[in-house]
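Repro:
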Amino acid sequence: MQPPFPCPTATWHNDTYESISPLRPELNAAGKTVIVVGAGSGIGRETALAFATAGAAHVALLGRTESALKETATYVSSAGKASCSVHTADVTKAKSLQDAAAAVGKWHVLVLCAGYCPTPSSVSSSEINVWWEGFEINVKGTLLAAKAFLPTVDASNAAILGLTSDVSLMPTAHLPGLSSYISSKLAQAKVYEFLAAENPDVFVATIAPGMVETANFYRSGATPDKLPMDKVQLPAHFLVWMASPEAAFLRGRCTWANWDVEELKAQRAKISDGLFMTAGFKGLP
């Protein structure tokens, strides 16, 4: 699928990321410091490139593997005029996140792309430590990142954006072995909703990124030949839109990167009222 709003058409050429056409002016990230956690590969890397192409002043790259982050940094440098910094950090380690926050200083957009899907197994046959790692990274990681970076937020037009999963809407019988991933993603979605409610000066929302070929995608047991696949640029550029004032009505909500933005905006009233696009049991018997 193509990104659902006017965004840069980008391509890889000789290992260089080239922007061919500009964003609409109201969607640019000019002057912003953008932090991308999980920027070493996949959606995180592409998101860093998208914000650089959109005119960000500085892109801070966080992840566990310095070499991967440095590779992303070379692409970011080719994608736009943004300065770039690399910060080795583990989302399950508070001190590493606090150190990164101190090094980055004031920021405007925090995008949390780090996530983990343990190798599928039934609840009864799973190894406890492996099963719980989904919660360590997806839930505790979100908590620790929020606590580390909120003290240094520049609250003017600031946003915290995260990746969740919409497959929790499917019957569990169709998702064998994914209890850790699905359960932790549901818990993570609720943490974001609390962050939105408790921080009225910061826009907080999440997206389901679509079906993108990443390490987590393959670890889940999925195969691209059996699913409607998306390009990694889809969620990356959608996140640029999510950081713009146009998306303000999505505070505390989870939306889908596959959704056409104009159709989404047409449902503003429905989304803003009630519990639509939030996690949890809906309605009473």
